[in-house]
User: Fold this.
Amino acid sequence: MTSLTASLTTDPASDVSARFAVINPADGSVITEVADAGPADADAAVARARAAAPGWGARPARERSDILLRAFGLMMQRQEDLAALISRENGKARADARAEVAYAAEYFRWYAEEAVRVRGEQFDNPPGTSKVLVSHEPVGICVLVTPWNFPAAMATRKIGPALAVGCTAILKPAAETPLTALAIADILAEAGVPDGVLTVLPTSSAGPLVDRLLEHEDVRLLSFTGSTEVGRHLLERASRRVLRTAMELGGNAPFLVLADADLDAAVEGAMLAKMRNGGQACTAANRLYVHESVHDRFAEAMVARMGALRMGDAADAGVEVGPLVNDKSRRKVQELVDDAVHRGARILLGGTAPAGPGYFYPPTVLVDVPADARILHEEVFGPVAPIVRFTDEEAVIETANDTIHGLVAYLYTEDLRRGLALSARLQAGMIALNRGLVSDPAAPFGGVKQSGLGREGSTEGLHEYLETKYVATNW
Ligand code: NAP
Assistant:
C-alpha cells in the first residue's frame, strides 16, 4: 500500500459502514475498501459546496492560481507514488501511469495560468446609445463524472478549470478507480483548497447518486467523461433542470496510412495511438486503414513491435502492457476478435486471452478484417489492431467518416498539402496529422457528432465553467 492510499482524508463518509472494494485487475485481489457514497452524502456534498462557493468565488484569481500551481508541484513531486496507485487500481503499465500523472498535473498548471486571464469586454453598441459591458462569472456548483481509463487526467481536466474560475465542485470518480481521485483531492487540500470546494464521492451506485446530485437547484453544470450511452442518458437527466453540460464521450478513431506515408513514423504513431494504456483510451486507434502498396510491410512491422511488448502486472517496472480493467472488458475484446475471425479476418498475433489470474489480453493484430466486422464499428478498448487494406483514397475517407463518433482521426502522409485538405474532410474534433498523440492541455480536446459536446483543455475548456453576464449602461 502506498502512503497515498493510507491518507485518504477526503474519504467522504469514512465514519459510515457502507464500503465497496477496489480491485487490482492484475490478480483480482482487493486493494482496499472505500466509503460508498449514497443520496445523503450527495446532499451533504452539495451543502458543503454551497457553503464554500461565496468564499472561493471571491478569492482573488491570483490566489486560486497559486493554489493550483502548488497542486501541480505536489503532483509532480509525488509522481512515482501516484503512478504506482494508478497502476494498481487501473492496471496500466508504470510508464503509462507516470505519463498520465505528468499530463494530469499539467491541467493544474495550465489552468493556474489561465485563472488570471479571464477577461470581459466593453464596447459601444452600433447606434452609440448604450455601453455594453460583458463579464464572466463562475457558473455555480459543478458535478464532475469521470471514467476509470485516465483516473487522474480526466479528473484534473475538469477540476482545474472549475476551481480556477471560482466554481465549487463534486467529483464522482469511476467505481474501479476512486483511489486516484481521492489522492488528488488530498493534494488539492494540502495545496490550500478550502473545505467544501471539492468533494469526491466514490460510489457503487453511480445512477442514483448522480441523479440525486442533479436534482439540487444549486447544481448548475454537469461535466461528464465516459461512454456515449451513459452520456445520452445524462443529457436527458440534465435537460430536466436545463443544466449546462460538457460531454466527452466515446470514439471510434480511424488511423489512415496513405501510400506516401513515412512508414516507420506511421508504425511508431500507430503503436502510440493503439497501445497507450493498453488500447483503453477514447482516442485509441480503433481501425487502421492502410494503402495496399504499404499494407504488408505495415502489418509485418506492427506484428514485430506489438509482439515484442512485455505483458504482466504493472507493479513490475519492465511491463509495457498491463491487464484490462475488468473481466467484462476482457470478454468484450474477445467477443470482437472472435466475431472478426468468424467473418473472415486473419489473426497475425495474439487473439486469445491467457488463463487467469488477472484480466489480461495479449497484443493482437488482425488483417483482412471485413467491413461488417463489429470491431470496425464498436470501441475495442483493448490492445487489438484491426488492419484493413484500401486502394481508393476517396472511398477510405467516406469509410472513416461512416460512424456516429467523431472524436479523433489519425492521418499519415508526407504531402502536407494533401494531409491538410483531407483533415478538413475528416469528421472529427481532433486530427493527428503524422502524429500518434493529440492530448495536450493547451489544445481544445473534444469530439463532434456523438463523441461529445464542448471542449476541455485550452482556453475553451475554461469557458465551459463560466457564465457570460452583460450589463447595458451609459455614463
Ligand atoms: P461509463 O461506463 O460511461 O462510465 C463513466 C462514468 O459514468 C463512471 O464514473 C461511471 O460510474 C458513471 N456512470 C455510469 N452509469 C451512470 C449513470 N447511469 N448515471 C451517472 N453516472 C454513471 O464509461 P467507462 O467505461 O468508465 O469509460 C470508458 C468510456 O469513456 C469509453 O467510451 C471512452 O471512449 C470514454 N472516454 C471518453 C473520453 C473523452 O475525452 N471523450 C475520455 C476517456 C474515456 P461507475 O464507474 O460507477 O459505473
About this structure: The chain has 15 helices and 18 strands. Residues 145-150, 154, 172, 174-175, 206-207, 210, 225-227, 230, 233-234, 248-251, 282, 379, 407, 447, 452 surround NAP (CB under 6 Å). Confidence is low (pLDDT under 50) at residues 1-15.
